[in-house]
Amino acid sequence: MLVGRTQELGVINAAFERMLAGEGNVLFLTGEAGLGKTTLIHEWWHTIAAETAIYAESACSIPIGNVDVGALEALQPWADVVAQLENHTGKNNTKFDVKRLIRDAAPSWAWAIPFVGDIAHAAVETHRLVKEQRGESEHNPNASNQQQVFQQYVNLLTKIAEDTPLVILLDDMHWADASSVNLLFYLSRQISSKKIFLIVTYRPDDALTAGDGKGHPILQVKNEILRYGGKEYPLTYLGDTAIRDYLISLFPAYKINDTFERWLRKISDGNSLFVTQFIKTLWEDAQLSDAGAFTGAYENIKTPDSALAVVMERTRRLDSDTRELLMYATAEGEEFTAYVLEQLSEIKTMQLLKELQQASSAGMIVQKGKSRMFANKTTTIYGFSHALFHKALYDTLLDDQKEFLHRKCFELLKAEWDRLSDSNERTLTIASKLLTHAEKCNEDAIAAKMALEAAQIAWQNFAEAEALEMIGHVRRLAESKNFSSLKNEREELLGDTAMLLSRIDVIRGRYDEALKNAGEALDYFEKGKNEFKSADALNQHGNINFYKSAYNKAETEARMALTMAKRTCNMSGEANALNTIGLVMKERGAYDAARECFEESFSIRESIGNQIGAAAALNNIGTVYCSSGANDKALEYHTKSLTLRESIGDRHGLSSSLCNIGTVHFSLGSFSLALEYFIKSLEIMDSIGDRSGIAYIHGNIGAVYSVGGSYTEAVNHFTISLEIMESIGDLNGIASTQNNIGNVLSDSGMFDGALGCFQKSTEIYESIHNSEGIVASLLGMGILHRKQGDLEQSRIILIRTETIASEIQAKEYIAGAKCELGMLCEAEAMQRDGDLRIAKLREAATLLEDGLAIFREMKSGRTQGYEGYLTRIKAILS
Q1: In a designed cystine with 70, which of 168, 175, 322, 477 is the match (CB 3.0 to 4.6 A)?
Q2: Long-range Cβ contacts of 313-320 (<8 Å, 24+ apart)
Q3: Nearest CA-CA partner of 565 in 543, 593, 533, 523
């Protein structure tokens, strides 16, 4: 029951009306425990806003036995919102197909779909989707960074809000993980024109003291959101009028008693939880009549000193069986399941449900509107109505009772974890809770394993802060005395931890740290005599050296890993090593050797059922054929990759294959067809939020417009590409885009700007040792100098271009350099007379014929312009 909050309801309603008008916003409701923040939202929704929008809420997990579980559950509050959206309907009472929306707009969030649905096949369909997205790669194949994961969530909510306005309550954010807070900020910046209303509650005092006094990230993020139009409303204590209104609503025959009301206000400080619960106590003690008249003596009443004290008194008044049952429930957490509680209490199901109903009637607990699979069957989820009820009951347990209950919770959760071992249904929520109970039971070895698995789950969504937090637990637990007799197990655990750290560092671009951690992983595996995993660590080390353009080191380590993987039957390791060797060969221009490596990698991946890896190998083969000028074969392999990616639902890979097919058509001169493929690719990449992929495709679209002479359109797309590349620090992408802009400016006659672009591009390519990129920039620069009339400088640059292109066997650039040298000779011939002119024209014709022969062999569309020059030169010579 809500009273005395008329002004607060008005604030919420005003923000809601703004959202309905198309102005999405964020409202922070703050205040200490017991002020009724959550009750206020519920009352507002049910009495004012219901049926005008979709409503979903989630609450961050409170600490279990002083362990901050919520801070470890990366993005779980937002996942709970997705789970609730599955059950909602939109316009015309049509139920949302959240699974389809996730496939189309947010594939990285497949893990958040509930496994229990209204129809029998819901769990099966969900399991299949999660397996597609998670089961065959170390990272989610539909996301390459957390920003992309966030963007997909925005896409999902936007799709729903286009049909029906959306209200989301995020409760107790002072217990939230860092990634959830970051997603809140990301979302807040993109809903200003959407029908999405976010309500966030937190306790300022708890937020200020979080993180060992450093403060919770919600404080900083809130300040940033307020700068961009968010609102904050601190809830105040109930005044005398509000207390009177509550008494009147509770006791219809109540006669106003100013003295009693002021006394209640004084002892409670207006804390609504204190007031509502203490009035119940006074009535039970016959200090209040059925009409609400005060019948006691103030001096004889023991007044509690806090809302917690009032709550503790309320819990003491429960009948002994119900109170004991709820005490058991606190061990699982503020949110608990009927299944676990039944095992803890050893009470039969019907009796258990009866006592839970009594606790619900007393206002101690509430039944959550969702179910969970446990021990392969559905169980109901309950939660304490307020964190103070949970605290009061948990603190009442004796140490021995806590130890016993945590042991039982550990055994139950461990059994559930083991049951889910082959299903990809393990969640960070189970992992973090199991870690907590394991450590409380001194099961340090198991707790360390749980921490590592939790870190790996967190990293699925690139939740770095939570993954690193869990990794810290692994390393701390590995130092405990319980590991003294488990030396090899400890070495393997620390090796796996270092490998995960290395992968995190790679994604973040911290290559030196990544190398260091991969080296540590190799040391741990070698100490533990685990050659199988040593091959994986060597592969990781070699891969990183490839990223650093240390090709000799990369090849050496990959070949060592290949030998080791073959010796230990590590087929995945073999495929990965071959992939690295193939990449090195391609960069060196050894296309035949590269293709052989990719083909062998494909065969292995296909044999072990790694379809995502197999599709990537097909893609690499197609790229090699394209680089070497065999466009028909390139198209064949990119099409095979496309078909496989379509069959497994790999939308990120699908976009990549479409883009690569477009690139082949571009090389063939089919520019309209190339543009169609690029646009299809961009639509998918936009939907999954991969900014790097979006930038790359915009660059390709710009190239199409450039060759068609639509320079303004070309520059627009190149500019979009460059802005994104610079924002994410992609040096290769920045260089490529600078080169593209340089070509457009050169064709437009803006030579000074073009030269600056080519110089920047060349400098970056040289710094990262990208030979093919260097050739592309040099070719553009050589053409520019010819157009400016600086023929000597043009010749120097074009000869260097042809030399490097020949070294790496880049046929397209060999042909381009020869043709441009031919045109240069023609320009030089015009400056000569007699036999010297004829000689230069013959040299020009020979170079053009050689270059055109290569272009024709490649079936390239770049022959037409050069053929015109050749025809004109031959006419002069004849």
Answers
A1: 175
A2: 313/277, 313/281, 314/277, 314/280, 314/281, 314/362, 314/364, 314/389, 314/392, 315/364, 315/389, 315/392, 315/393, 315/396, 317/281, 317/284, 318/358, 318/359, 318/362, 318/364, 319/358
A3: 533
Q: Using 50, 70 and 90 to split pLDDT, how confident is the model at 144?
A: low
pLDDT number for residue 571: 96
- 604: tokens are 């292995």
- Return the number of other C-beta atoms located less than 10 Å from residue 130's C-beta: 18
Query: Residue 737 in contact with residue 722, Cβ under 8 Å?
Result: yes
Which residue type does 401 have?
A: Q
pLDDT digits (tens, 9 = 90+) for 522-537: 999 999 999 999 999 9
Are 23 and 194 in contact, with CB atoms under 8 Å apart?
Answer: no
Q: Which residue has the tokens 């620390």?
A: 494
Residue 721 has a CB neighbour count (10 Å cut-off) of: 26
Report CA torsion sign: 126, 130, 135, 136: positive
pLDDT of res. 825: 93
CA dihedral 528, 534, 540, 546 (to 10 degrees): 130
Q: How many CA atoms lie within 13 A of 537 on its CB side?
A: 25
Number of H helices, E strands in the chain: 40, 8
Q: Who contacts 220 (Cβ-Cβ below 8 Å, separation ≥6)?
A: none
Q: How far apart are CA 839 and CA 832, in angstroms?
A: 10
Among candidate residues 133, 104, 108, the one with its CA nearest the CA of residue 612: 133
Tell me how long the chain is.
878
- Tell which residue, 467, 473, 472, 468, has the closest CA to residue 436: 473
Read off the DSSP letter of residue 481: G
Q: Do the strands 54-59 and 231-234 form a parallel or antiparallel pair, or are they unpaired?
A: unpaired
Tokens of 218: 């919600």
In terms of DSSP H, where are the helices of 251-302? Answer: 258-268, 272-284
DSSP output for 53-100: SEEEEEEPPPPBTTB--GGGSTTHHHHHHHHHHTT-B-GGGPBP-HHH
Could you give the maximum distance between any two Cα atoms of the chain, in Å?
126
DSSP bridge partners of 294: 288
Pairing relationship of beta strands 377-384 and 231-234 according to DSSP bridges:
unpaired
Q: Rounded CA gap, 618 and 372, in Å? A: 40
Find where tokens 């490097």 sit.
Answer: 804
- Which tokens in the block code for residue 541? 């080390």
**Rounded CA separation 669/687 (Å):** 29
Radius of gyration of the chain measured on its C-alpha atoms: 33
First vs last Cα of the chain: how many Å apart?
101
User: Would you call 697 exposed, middle or buried from its count of C-beta atoms within 10 A (0-12, 13-18, 19+)?
Assistant: buried
Contacts for 685 with CB less than 8 Å, ≥ 6 apart: 652, 655, 693, 694, 697
Give the separation between CA 869 and CA 253, rounded to whole angstroms. 103
DSSP annotation of 426 reads -
H or E segment and range at residue 167: strand 166-171
Residues 560, 534: Cα–Cα separation, whole Å: 10
Among 805, 762, 765, which residue's Cα sits nearest to residue 781?
A: 762
- Is residue 109 within 8 A of residue 80, CB to CB? The reply is no
Q: Smallest Cα–Cα separation from 345: which of 363, 317, 364, 320?
A: 320
107 contacts: CB under 8 Å, gap ≥ 6? 133, 140, 142, 143, 152, 649, 651, 652, 688
